[in-house]
Design goal:
about 130 residues, four-stranded antiparallel sheet, 2 domains, alpha+beta, 4 strands, elongated
Length: about 130
């Protein structure tokens, strides 16, 4: 485990009271854990906006009976083979499929892949969740 550094934080009373309510609602064990998560989230947001490396998952539902949709989905995934780690395909019912695409790469490329899937006719929903790749 890496070294842990301690530092002080000064906050106004209303802000710390709101923060303590957040900590309790999220079931953190300490303020330090909550602050670490907030810092990680902000650094991830910075990486995302600056095009840094991210890892995550694209979750997609679609109607596999839509004409040529499956071929288009496969073509797009092959175009992004360098950032796709794996895919998992689930048959939800006779018409609908769920696909989970694990990704690792440049944030801009991950966003481009997600958007490319989202705009296809027959794709019902696309959700992108990312985290730091480091």
């Amino acid at each position: 485990m890496s070294d842990v550094y301690r530092f002080g934080v000064s906050l106004e009373k209303p802000l710390i009271e709101d923060f303590d309510l957040h900590i309790k609602a999220q079931q953190y064990k300490s303020r330090s854990e909550a602050i670490r998560d907030l810092i990680r989230e902000e650094l991830l947001r910075k990486k995302w906006t600056e095009g840094g490396a991210v890892a995550g998952a694209i979750i997609m539902t679609y109607d596999h009976h839509k004409r040529e949709l499956v071929n288009k989905l496969l073509d797009i995934q092959h175009d992004f083979h360098d950032i796709i780690i794996s895919t998992q395909h689930v048959h939800l019912d006779h018409n609908n499929c769920l696909e989970v695409i694990a990704v690792n790469g440049n944030a801009a490329d991950v966003e481009k892949l997600s958007t490319g899937l989202k705009v296809l006719v027959g794709v019902k929903h696309v959700s992108l969740s990312v985290s730091s790749a480091e």
